[in-house]
Amino acid sequence: MAETGKTRGQKFVSALSDSALAAIIAFALFSLLLGLRTVDGATGLTLEPGRACC
Amino acid sequence: MLTVVAIVFFGRLALNLFVWQAEYPLAAPFAKLFTSEPFERRDLVTYAVTCIFGAAWIVTGLVLEEAVYGVLGTVVLLFVGLGLLRRAILQRFPDLPYAQIFIACGIAFALFFPIVSYALESVFHLGLPLRYWFDLSILILTYVMLGWGLNIVVGLAGLLDLGYVAFYAVGAYTFALLATHFGFGFWMCLPIAGAAAALWGVILGFPVLRLRGDYLAIVTLAFGEIVRIVLLNWTEVTGGPNGIAGIPKPTFFGLPFSPFAEGMTFSKFFGVPYDGLYALIFLYYVILVLALLTNLVTLRLRRLPVGRAWEAMREDEIACRSLGINTTLTKLSAFATGAMFGGLAGCFFATRQGFVSPESFTFIESAIILAIVVLGGMGSQLGVAIAAVVMVGGFEALRHTAGLQAIFGDEFDPALYRMLLFGIAMVGIMVWRPRGLVSSRAPTIALGDADTISGDLVRQGRG
User: Fold this and answer.
1) How many angstroms separate the CA of residue B51 from the nearest CA in chain A?
2) What is the pLDDT of residues B233-251, one digit of tens each?
3) Packing angle, helices B186-205 and B165-182, rounded to 10
4) Which residue from B279, B233, B260 is spatially nearest to B130, judged by alpha carbons?
5) In 3D, which of B159, B172, B191 has the Cα closest to residue B333?
6) What count of Cα atoms within 13 Å lies in the side-chain half-sphere of residue A13?
7) Is A14 in Cβ contact with B9 (below 8 Å)?
8) What's the confidence (pLDDT) of residue B408?
9) Long-range contacts: A1-6, Cβ < 8 Å, 24+?
10) CB B346 within 8 A of CB B175
11) Fewer CB in 10 Å around end: N or C, chain B?
């Protein structure tokens, strides 16, 4: 939860910065999966290199 | 990837602006659906707007022929509608014993569901998937029984047992071996399987008498794995990975259901045409009776000295011992009683499947049973039953989510992601309801009025 400001502008800026931080963390966590795709193999779900995009 | 980041960003922004920082949080009116606080005008406006959104989604789904919008709209309307209905009933009849009514309705439903659905199908030919429904109900009731059995050990005695599936396996293999080698029937083997599992409960109980907490969990986990590995490698007796096949089905007081059986059969005796569903309905009632028996015995035991000793030991073992209670016997009786019900459920599992193998008794089974007990609320019989229905039925519901495929593509199979969803559900429950779905407790014995207390005041699973 973001620090609450006094004015409406301060509140909006703090909410925006907090959300941006959360988005960056989500990107960092999920970036490990970039280029991989989940395949339903014989041994369950496995990660495989995805198709080359270019 | 971009979708995930966008959901996190905009989701958190919306939460910050409209819930966490707002003077009038958007979540407040929805929280009031679960309390008795009086409504304000803006609450009613929020409900109206939500209902309009829900109806609009349903109409959009119908126009675009996209199931996902219809599902979303229905969920929203149901949530608000049922919440308002709950508030209205509570306001009109504030003093009704709702828990008892809910339990009575649940038992009545469980008792009449197979007969009524079979009668409806026979008369009106509605095309109901009765076989699937009965199979699923039997599976759910098996987990309810296992949950209630483990609840004795974990919820009442406070002994964290991660190897409960071992007793389930002992019961199943006891019946399978006796039936295939000596030709014993189901009813004769049922008490033997229960006794064998109880014996193994005592055998496990002895070495762990001095253990508690994490150490107890590790040893019981190891016990579960030892039993499974022995079953896997003792090929001469257990058939190893091939398991044991040809386990006989139960009979109706000696009358077999199979049309190929020699002599008098169920259909011939009652003069009705053969229907495979009769055997399933009978199995349903067998497991229902076994589960209700587990519940009844547990409720009665709780009022006996041994049950009160279990709960005293859960609260404080040292104080319990200083009061003169024999904790050795108390622990062993908890393990033996819990294991006995696991063994009975295992015996039923063997006869229902007609085949047992070590694959059916992996650690994940223990984890699921423990999760049912924890999610339901340790020590709460009603909570465990609800959790078993939600978890086992919920897993099955994931097979029928065409709406999700509309979002994630045709290749998306939600059943494959059920362990992920299971984990998310566990985290959600632990965050919002850390004491389980039913988090209040009524004392088993009280001198005056038995006031219901919060689950926070009870120390379960610390043994």
Assistant:
1) 28
2) 998 888 888 989 888 888 8
3) 140
4) B279
5) B159
6) 6
7) no
8) 65
9) A1/B16, A1/B20, A1/B21, A2/B16, A2/B20, A2/B21, A4/B20, A4/B21
10) yes
11) N
CATH 1.10.3470 fits B129-397, yes or no: yes
Residues 6+ apart with CB under 8 A from B129: none
Residue among B8, B17, B416 whose CB faces A26 most closely: B8
All residues at 6 or more sequence positions from B449 whose CB lies less than 8 Å from its CB, including other chains: none
- Nearest C-alpha neighbor of B299 from the set B100, B444, B198: B444
- What ipTM describes this predicted complex? 0.76
- Return the residue of B nearest to A46 by Cα: B416
Q: Tell me where in chain B the CATH 1.10.3470 domain(s) lie.
A: 129-397
The highest-confidence range among A3-7, B144-148, B254-258, B431-435, by mean pLDDT, is: B144-148
Query: Residue with structure tokens 């398991």?
Result: B243
Q: Quick check: A19 and B9 CB within 8 A?
A: yes
Provide the token pair at B325: 């209670």
Min Cα distance B20 → chain A (Å) is 7
Distance CA B96, CA B90 (A): 8
Whole-number Å distance between alpha carbons of B463 and B315: 8
Record the pTM: 0.80
Q: In angstroms, rounded to a whole number, what is the distance separating the alpha carbons of residues B121 and B130?
A: 8
CA-based nearest distance A25→chain B, Å: 9
Helix then strand count (H, E) for chain B reads 19, 4
Measure the N-to-C terminal CA separation of chain A; round to a whole number of Å.
40
Query: Which residues make beta-bridge pairs with B440?
Result: B454
Using the structure block, give the residue that is written with the tokens 């409406």.
A8
Ramachandran angles phi, psi of B454, nearest 5°:
-70, 150
Cβ contacts (< 8 Å) between B5 and chain A: which residues?
23, 26-27, 30
> Residue A12: its chain B contacts at CB < 8 A?
17
How many of the other CB atoms lie within 10 Å of CB of B421? Answer: 14
Which residues 6+ apart lie within 8 Å of B381 measured at CB?
A: B148, B151, B295, B298, B299
Cα B432 to Cα A22, B82, B231, B383, B387: the distances in Å are: 21, 20, 40, 15, 15
Q: What digits encode the pLDDT tens for the residues B217-230? A: 899 899 999 999 99
Lowest mean pLDDT among B85-94, B160-169, B269-278: B269-278
